[in-house]
């Protein structure tokens, strides 16, 4: 009985932990995707001759509630619409830094894009993406 109790307790504590980690990885995956899109915008601006690049923000997609699931959607013949998405817990902010500094004379830059976000628990997170950007198209 003691072994069974320990096993049940271990499983019941692992379940919320696993869903929390899934949510964290989802945010990180969204941040990387947003960072790649921002890096492509920076690349296009540099190729167009820009000498300054502004930061960008986008809301975090909270998706659907994991506790109840999405039922009857999009199963064949279902008439129910999907439930509303959860409200966004915050924003992603992407900034770019250039080495050497972005100017009109250099033609090649090492670009670092930093995407940051803060979750409701006031925990700050960030991901870094790096690329070489040139003024002339390859």
CA radius of gyration is: 21 Å
| Measured distance between first and last alpha carbons | 68 Å
- What is the mean predicted local confidence, pLDDT? 85
Task: Name the strands of the widest sheet in spatial order.
Answer: 1-2-3-4
**Binned strand content:** 25-35%
Backbone structural class? alpha+beta
Shape descriptor reads elongated
* Largest sheet report: 4 strands, antiparallel
- The share of residues in helices is 25-40%
Tally of contiguous helical segments: 1
Poorly predicted runs are: none
Total number of distinct structural domains: 1
Number of strands: 4
- Compressed to H and E, one letter per element, the order equals HEEEE
Structure description:
- The protein has 138 residues and is α+β, with helices and mostly antiparallel strands.
- It has one domain (2-62, 88-134).
- 33% of the residues lie in helices and 25% in strands.
- It contains one helix and four strands.
- It has a four-stranded antiparallel sheet, covered by helices on one side.
- A hairpin with an 8-residue loop joins strand 2 and strand 3 (108-118).
Based on the model shown, name its key terms.
138 residues, four-stranded antiparallel beta sheet, 1 helix, 4 strands, 25% strand
Question: How would you summarize this macromolecular structure in one to three sentences?
Answer:
With 138 residues, this protein is α+β, with helices and mostly antiparallel strands. The chain contains one helix and four strands; from the N terminus they run αββββ.
Topology record:
Elements: H1 2-47, E1 56-59, E2 91-99, E3 108-118, E4 124-134
Antiparallel strand pairs: 1-2, 2-3, 3-4
């Amino acid at each position: 009985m003691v072994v069974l109790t320990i096993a049940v307790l271990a499983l019941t504590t692992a379940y919320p932990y696993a869903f929390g980690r899934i949510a964290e990885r989802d945010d990180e995956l969204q941040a990387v995707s947003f960072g790649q899109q921002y890096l492509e915008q920076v690349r296009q601006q540099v190729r167009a001759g820009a000498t300054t690049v502004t930061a960008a923000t986008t809301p975090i997609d909270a998706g659907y509630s994991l506790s109840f699931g999405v039922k009857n959607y999009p199963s064949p013949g279902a008439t129910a619409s999907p439930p509303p998405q959860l409200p966004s817990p915050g924003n992603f902010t992407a900034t770019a830094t250039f080495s050497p500094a972005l100017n009109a004379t250099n033609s090649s830059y090492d670009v670092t894009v930093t995407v940051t976000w803060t979750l409701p628990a006031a925990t700050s997170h960030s991901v870094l993406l790096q690329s070489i950007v040139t003024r002339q198209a390859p």
